[in-house]
C-alpha cells in the first residue's frame, strides 16, 4: 500500500485514503486488521516476551509517518525497556471526536495523542486541564521550535500541551512540460519570479497559460486549494486575537475568496475537489499545470502522478509565504506512563528526529534549529527534478506570519472549501452566491 | 407451608403434591422444580434483554435526555437544559428539511425499483433452472460486499472526467454528466448503489416465499387457462402479500437510516453530502451535527426525530396490514 506512505496533515486527505484502505481491506480481507486497529481504541495489549517493559501507545490519524520513518524502532533500540505501539485511525474526522470522548471519560486514551493544527486551538482552549504541560519536560527546548508553532500548542494560561511536529510552508508545484508548451519559463527561479509577491500575479500567469494552454489542460487543480493557500498567509483568518469569529468581515478572507473565485470564473481551474478520486486521476493524466503544495503534499503528488510524471514536476516558491497543515503531539494526564510518554514526545519532536522525518517522509520540521541540519537544508527531491526543497521550504517557513487560530477553524474552513468555493468552482455559482452559501452553512455549524 | 405454595401453582403435577406431603426434603425439591419451570425461561431470554437494556434502551433514553440540552462533544458532561429548543429549531432548519426531503426522494428512488426488480428476479429464479444455486448465490453477492468497497467502485464509475459511465455516454454521442453535483443525478447515483446492494437480498426472500406457495394453485390456474403472466399476477403476488409488506417495511427503515452510501459517495468531503447538500440524508446530517460540528444535543434531537418518523411509518404499516388482512378475510 504505497499510498499509505504519504504524510497527510489535512484531514480531508485522510478520508480519501481511508476509503481506499477500506476498499483494500474489503478486497483482500487480510492484513488490515493487524496494522490498522479499527475503532482505534487502546486495545494494543502487552504481548508475550514484553513483560516488565513499559508499553507506550501512540495514537495518530492518517499515516503520520513517525513509525514508517523508523523513529519508533530507533527509540526502542536506545531504550530497550520501552515498547511503542501505534494506534492509527485513518480519518481525522473519526479520530478527533473519539479523542475528545476519551479525554472526557479519562479512559481509552493512548499515552501520546496527535492533534491536527485545525483542532489544536479547541484542544488548548477546552482540554488543557486533561493534558500534560510538556513545556517543562526535560529535553524540550522552546527556542528549538518556530515561535508561532510553540504558541499554537500553548494554552492561554501558559501550559504547552502540544509539541509541534511538522508545518506546511507553501510552495507551488508545477509541470515543466506544460509550462514549456504554453510558452512560460520552466526554470524554478524564473517561475517563482513570475508571481513573486502577489497571488494576483499567479492568476495573471494563469491567464497567460490559458491563452496558449495545451489541449485539455488547466492552469490549476482547484479553486479551494488556492483558497487554502492564500488564506494561510494571513495572520488573521477566522478569529481575532480575542477569540471572536471575524471571518465575515475580515478583508484578508474576502481577498482570498476573490482570488480563489477568480481562478474559477476565469476558467483557470480544473474544477476538482482535493483528495478526491477525480483529483488523483487529474494528476495521473497531467490535467493541470500547477498545485499549491505544502511539503507533505509532495509524496502524494509523486504517488498519484506516478512514473509517467517523473521529471515533469518541479517546485517553485509560492507568491507569498503561507502555511497549510501541521500537527502536534500531546500527552494525556490520564495515562499510566505519563513521564515515559512525555520523554518520548520530547524525543520525537526534537530537531534531529524532525529532520529524519523530513528526509524520509517530507513532513517539514517545526523545529527551526533543524533547518541548519544538512539533512534538511541540503534536501533535494529527486522526483521533482532535484528541486532543493530544503532551501525552498525553509525560506517559506521563515516568512509565515504567526497565525491566530480558533476552536472552530476546521468547521469554518471545511464549509468554505467544500460548500461555498466548491459551488463557485464546480457549479458555476457566482462568488457572492458561493460566499452566502458558505456563511449560511457556517452559521448553522457554529450555533450550539 | 409446602402445601400452601403447591396450591398456588395449579399446573404442578399431581404426583408432586403427594410427594410434597412426605417431607421437607422432597418439598424443597419440588419447590426447586417449580422455580425452574417458572424462572428459567426468563434466564434464557435474559441475555438479550440485558444487552438490549445496555446497548438499546439506555442509549435511546439517554439520547432523548441529551436532546433536551445544549451539549458539546468537547465537554459532554456539561449539559445546559434548553427544553424542546433543539426540536423546535428543526422546524426552521432548512438543512434539516433538505435532508428529510433527500431521504424521502432517495428512499423512493431506491426502494421502489429495488423491490420490483427483486420480484422479477425471484420469479425467474423460481423456474427450474440449470445451476439454480449458482444464480441464487450470485444474486446475494452484492449483499455480501462491504458498503465501502461497493461505493468506491461506484464513485469511480460515476466520475465526472474519467468515469466509465460518462465514457459510455460519450461513446454514443451524449454529453458527460457531472453526476455528483446535480441534485437528481447524485441522488440517482446513490440510489443505484443501494439498489445494486439490496436487490438480490430481497429477491431471495421473495424466492423463499414463492417456493412455499402450494403447487396445486398453479396447476388449477393452468387448467383454467391462465397464462404465465396471469398466474404471476393472480396467484404469486397475492400469496406474497405478507412477504412484500415485510420487505417494504425493512427497506423503508433502511432508507430512512441511509448513511454509508451517501457518506462515501462524496469521497473525502465528509458529511456535507455535496456542495449544496444535494444528497445529504438525515443520517448524514445527524453525523455532521454530532461528530463534525460537535453539537451532541442537536444531533440527539435529529436522532429522536428520525426515531419518531420510523414509529410513524410503523404505524402506517400496521394500519395497512390490518386493512389487508381484513380484506383477505372478507374475500375468503
Automatic annotation (TrEMBL), chain A:
Gene3D superfamilies: Periplasmic binding protein-like II
PANTHER family, per database record: ARABINOSE-BINDING PROTEIN-RELATED, SUGAR BINDING SECRETED PROTEIN
Protein name: Sugar-binding protein
Keyword field: Signal
Pfam families xrefs: SBP_bac_8
Species this chain originates from: Streptomyces finlayi
Keyword Signal: yes
Domain of life: Bacteria
PROSITE patterns the UniProt entry points to: PROKAR_LIPOPROTEIN
Automatic annotation (TrEMBL), chain B:
Family annotation (InterPro entries): ABC_transporter_permease, MetI-like, MetI-like_sf
PROSITE patterns: ABC_TM1
Cited SUPFAM superfamilies: MetI-like
Pfam assignment, any one: BPD_transp_1
Region (Disordered): 1-25
Coiled coil: none
GO terms of biological process kind: transmembrane transport
One GO cellular component term: plasma membrane
ABC transmembrane type-1 domain mapped to chain residues: 100-317
UniProt family annotation: Belongs to the binding-protein-dependent transport system permease family.
Protein name from the UniProt record: ABC transporter permease
Amino acid at each position: 500500500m504505497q499510498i499509505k506512505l504519504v504524510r497527510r496533515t489535512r484531514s480531508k486527505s485522510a478520508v480519501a485514503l481511508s476509503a481506499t484502505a477500506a476498499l483494500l481491506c474489503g478486497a483482500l480481507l487480510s492484513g488490515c486488521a493487524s496494522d490498522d486497529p479499527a475503532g482505534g481504541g487502546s486495545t494494543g495489549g502487552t504481548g508475550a516476551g514484553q513483560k516488565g517493559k513499559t508499553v507506550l501507545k501512540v495514537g495518530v490519524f492518517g499515516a503520520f509517518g513517525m513509525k514508517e520513518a523508523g523513529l519508533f524502532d530507533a527509540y526502542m533500540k536506545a531504550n530497550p525497556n520501552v515498547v511503542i505501539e501505534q494506534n492509527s485511525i485513518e480519518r481525522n474526522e473519526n479520530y478527533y471526536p473519539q479523542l475528545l470522548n476519551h479525554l472526557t471519560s479519562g479512559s481509552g486514551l493512548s499515552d501520546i495523542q496527535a492533534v491536527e493544527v485545525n483542532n489544536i486551538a479547541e484542544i488548548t482552549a477546552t482540554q488543557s486541564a486533561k493534558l500534560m504541560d510538556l513545556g517543562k519536560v526535560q529535553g524540550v527546548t522552546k527556542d528549538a521550535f518556530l515561535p508561532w508553532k510553540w504558541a499554537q500548542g500553548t494554552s492561554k494560561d501558559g501550559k504547552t500541551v502540544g509539541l509541534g511536529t511538522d508545518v506546511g510552508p507553501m510552495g507551488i508545484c508545477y509541470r515543466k512540460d506544460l509550462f514549456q508548451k504554453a510558452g512560460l519559463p520552466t526554470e524554478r527561479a524564473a517561475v517563482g519570479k513570475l508571481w513573486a509577491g502577489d497571488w494576483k500575479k499567479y492568476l495573471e500567469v494563469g491567464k497567460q497559460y490559458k491563452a496558449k494552454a495545451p489541449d485539455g489542460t488547466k492552469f490549476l487543480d482547484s479553486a479551494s486549494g488556492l483558497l487554502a493557500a492564500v488564506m494561510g498567509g494571513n495572520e488573521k483568518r477566522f478569529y481575532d486575537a480575542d477569540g471572536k469569529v471575524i471571518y465575515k468581515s475580515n478583508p484578508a478572507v474576502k481577498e482570498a475568496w476573490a482570488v480563489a473565485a477568480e481562478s474559477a470564473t476565469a476558467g483557470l481551474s480544473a474544477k476538482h475537489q482535493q483528495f478526491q478520486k477525480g483529483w488523483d486521476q487529474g494528476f495521473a493524466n497531467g490535467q493541470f499545470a500547477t498545485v499549491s503544495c505544502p511539503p507533505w503534499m509532495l509524496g502524494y503528488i509523486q504517488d498519484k502522478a506516478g512514473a509517467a510524471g517523473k521529471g515533469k514536476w518541479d517546485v517553485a516558491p509560492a507568491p507569498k509565504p503561507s502555511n497549510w497543515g501541521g500537527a502536534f503531539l500531546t500527552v494525556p494526564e490520564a495515562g499510566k506512563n505519563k513521564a515515559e510518554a512525555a520523554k518520548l514526545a520530547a524525543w520525537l519532536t526534537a530537531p534531529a528526529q524532525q529532520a529524519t522525518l523530513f528526509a524520509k517522509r517530507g513532513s517539514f520540521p517545526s523545529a527551526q534549529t533543524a533547518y541548519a541540519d544538512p539533512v534538511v537544508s541540503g534536501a533535494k527531491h529527486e522526483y521533482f527534478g532535484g528541486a532543493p526543497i530544503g532551501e525552498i521550504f525553509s525560506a517559506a517557513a521563515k516568512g509565515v506570519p504567526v497565525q491566530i487560530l480558533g476552536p472552530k477553524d476546521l468547521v469554518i474552513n471545511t464549509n468554505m472549501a467544500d460548500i461555498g468555493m466548491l459551488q463557485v468552482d464546480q457549479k458555476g455559482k457566482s462568488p457572492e452566491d458561493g460566499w452566502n452559501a458558505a456563511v449560511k452553512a457556517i452559521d448553522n455549524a457554529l450555533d450550539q | 407451608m409446602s402445601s400452601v405454595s403447591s396450591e398456588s401453582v395449579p399446573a404442578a403435577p399431581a404426583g408432586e403434591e403427594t410427594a410434597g406431603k412426605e417431607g421437607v426434603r422432597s418439598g424443597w425439591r419440588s419447590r426447586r422444580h417449580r422455580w425452574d419451570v417458572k424462572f428459567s425461561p426468563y434466564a434464557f431470554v435474559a441475555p438479550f434483554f440485558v444487552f438490549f437494556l445496555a446497548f438499546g434502551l439506555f442509549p435511546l433514553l439517554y439520547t432523548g435526555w441529551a436532546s433536551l440540552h445544549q451539549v458539546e462533544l468537547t465537554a459532554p458532561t456539561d449539559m445546559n437544559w434548553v427544553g424542546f429548543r433543539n426540536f423546535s429549531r428543526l422546524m426552521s432548519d432548512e438543512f434539516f428539511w433538505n435532508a428529510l426531503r433527500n431521504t424521502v426522494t432517495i428512499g423512493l428512488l431506491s426502494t421502489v425499483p429495488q423491490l420490483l426488480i427483486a420480484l422479477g428476479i425471484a420469479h425467474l429464479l423460481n423456474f427450474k433452472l440449470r445451476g439454480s444455486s449458482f444464480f441464487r448465490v450470485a444474486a446475494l453477492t452484492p449483499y455480501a460486499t462491504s458498503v465501502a468497497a461497493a461505493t468506491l467502485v461506484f464513485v469511480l464509475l460515476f466520475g465526472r472526467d474519467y468515469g466509465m459511465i460518462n465514457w459510455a455516454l460519450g461513446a454514443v454521442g451524449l454529453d458527460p454528466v457531472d453526476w455528483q453535483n446535480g441534485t437528481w443525478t447524485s441522488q440517482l447515483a446513490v440510489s443505484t448503489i443501494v439498489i445494486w446492494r439490496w436487490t438480490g437480498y430481497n429477491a431471495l426472500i421473495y424466492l423463499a416465499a414463492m417456493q412455499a406457495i402450494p403447487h396445486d394453485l398453479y396447476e388449477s390456474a393452468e387448467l383454467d387457462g391462465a397464462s404465465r403472466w396471469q398466474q404471476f399476477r393472480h396467484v404469486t403476488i397475492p400469496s406474497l402479500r405478507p412477504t412484500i409488506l415485510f420487505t417494504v417495511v425493512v427497506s423503508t427503515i433502511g432508507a430512512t437510516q441511509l448513511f454509508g452510501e451517501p457518506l462515501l459517495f462524496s469521497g473525502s468531503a465528509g458529511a456535507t453530502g455535496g456542495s449544496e447538500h444535494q444528497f445529504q440524508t438525515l443520517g448524514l446530517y445527524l453525523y455532521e451535527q454530532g461528530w463534525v460540528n460537535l453539537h451532541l444535543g442537536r444531533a440527539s434531537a435529529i436522532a429522536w426525530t428520525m426515531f419518531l418518523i420510523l414509529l410513524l411509518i410503523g404505524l402506517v404499516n400496521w394500519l395497512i396490514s390490518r386493512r389487508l388482512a381484513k380484506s383477505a378475510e372478507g374475500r375468503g
